[in-house]
Amino acid sequence: MVRLSSEILALAVGLLPQLVQGAGLNTAAVAKGKLYFGTATDNPELTDTAYVTQLNNTDDFGQITPGNSQKWDTIEPTQNTFSYTKGDVIANLAKANGQKLRCHNLVWHSQLPSWVTSGTWTNATLLAAMKNHITNVVTHYKGDCYAWDVVNEALNEDGSYRESIWYTTIGPAYLPIAFATAAAADPNVKLYYNDYNIEYSGSKATGALNIVKLIQSYGVKIDGVGLQGHFIVGSTPSQSSQASTMAAYTALGVEVAITELDIRMTLPSTDALLAQQKTDYSGTVAACVATKNCVGVTIWDWTDKYSWVPSTFSGQGAACPWDENYVKKPAYTGILTALGGTATSSTTTSAVSSTSSTSTTTSSGSSATGVAHWGQCGGSGWTGGKTCASGYTCTYFNDYYSQCL
Ligand code: 9MR
Fold first, then answer.
1. From the CB of 67, is ligand 1 less than 6 Å away?
2. Rounded CA gap, 261 and 362, in Å?
């Protein structure tokens, strides 16, 4: 393998568009001008070393979101007693890897401890408890988070407010008050409203637009709208529908991000379903790529092994870009292609596969002839092809990436 000198690396700035070809999802996203491509994770999975190896792969993941460990029931299980241990594990992992952290979430109707759901509240006492929670948690993670999902899933499907304890006790003012409280605790963190089924036009998206306007009408800062993106294979909104909905939000002066992307199917998975899933992932990511103020995409965990889907939707699953054996599915190539990268071996066994899955290659890369020009041939965790096709040399670029040049 050849090592690039610093002079050649400097010259390589002009080569960057080519250098991303064959690179991972985050590398390709950043080359497209996005801030990150990321994934959710959760504390129980962190005992799985093969899982953690891929989670740490910053070529694919430049951002992580704690799936559960910053939620109210974990952090403040009894009133005014804060427990940050689990959330800190993930925040520290992100820090150690140099990954951005999306912090999730502050005010939600779900995963609340019983002292909140069964308490006897007045407007004033519940507001005080909400503000106390937000102030403590945002202050604890000050400087760690790229963004906070300040309010999560406040809307019904028809765009009206969900009858949560927050809404029924405080009224819609709980939203701007939550955002104002978060802004006071950390003026630099991005403050998001986050919801599902607001990725396409309709009553619920109109409700989300109205939430942005409501918060702004109070003179309070809101920086972004998180489009969760929990989709179904074959029923995923089109790229143009998603892009035009993103444009409606960004027209209000906020950024957007796809925050919890996964695309489930009715099991068993078939080649046809996997092909449609690839198309659906690709179109969704392409909508973000096409939207200047869409800052990044987060998948709601990267492997089917730890997806939330099967336990929630009976008979459904296979929603992630990697299967339960950590093998990349066609969806991975769909995402990479949407991000402007070129897959060298689209369904190649992942770097961390713990099973003896077979490796297959696509026409854009061939194990028989070596890795094609511009393809990845090395880097931390890389177990794909390491020998370049005739005429090309595997060239060290950084610890995470070597390329056939
Ligand atoms: O992934 C989370 C799962 O482990 C929890 O059991 C579930 C409980 O509601 O929450 C999941 O994450 C949700 C996220 O916090 C908000 N949007 C929907 C996600 C999937 O349910």
1. yes
2. 25
